[in-house]
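In this notation, each integer encodes one residue's backbone shape. One such record reads:

___
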Amino acid sequence: MSLTRAAVYRRRIAATVAWLHAESFGHVRLLERRRGGFRAETSIRGRGEAGMLEIDVAFEPGGRTYHSRTIAGRGAGTDIVTHLQPDGAATRIEVEFLVPATATVPADRIVRIGERYVRLYERLWSQDEAMMIRRQALLDGELAPGLREVCVDGERLRHATVCPHLGGPLEHASVEDGCVTCPWHGYRFDIRTGRSADGRGLHLETSRAE
């Protein structure tokens, strides 16, 4: 099946290429890992079952260009090609959205599809840029971890404001049933014990407030 370019998204972000990642979807479940790529089940955040899809990600030699091909579900047949170019302490990004082209798909529909992809990637890269800047600041010692005080079942407790997964912000993270949830990747921790509440094995620093 032939593909046609629906849109191109370009951006310069204030982070180095080393921090780029693709973890902004509703969930990711690895199906296959191989040299130079992987296959995963994922979903568009907030779309429920309608947003489910299976993607195959393949990196070209050098690792700065990669293809995210949708092989099942919403947008099947689409190839999203991301090009990364270091630019000093920043990174230039170009993303091509290639969608299946047939005689029955009018040109104005392809334009609308391209516009939706550009809006989605604008939001995703804005989230990712904020993540990368915070993580780099933590590594460079420019952002000091702190403690947050909360009340759980009438008891005053404290928990670290940095998620032990990838440094996500817990200063204002939601607390429910005694557990705090990282807004970046959904890791949950029991504030009473510091233990992982979702079986992922990490531990959060917690203590009783004096």
Q: What stands out?
A: The longest strand covers residues 3-13. The chain is about 15% helix and 40% strand.
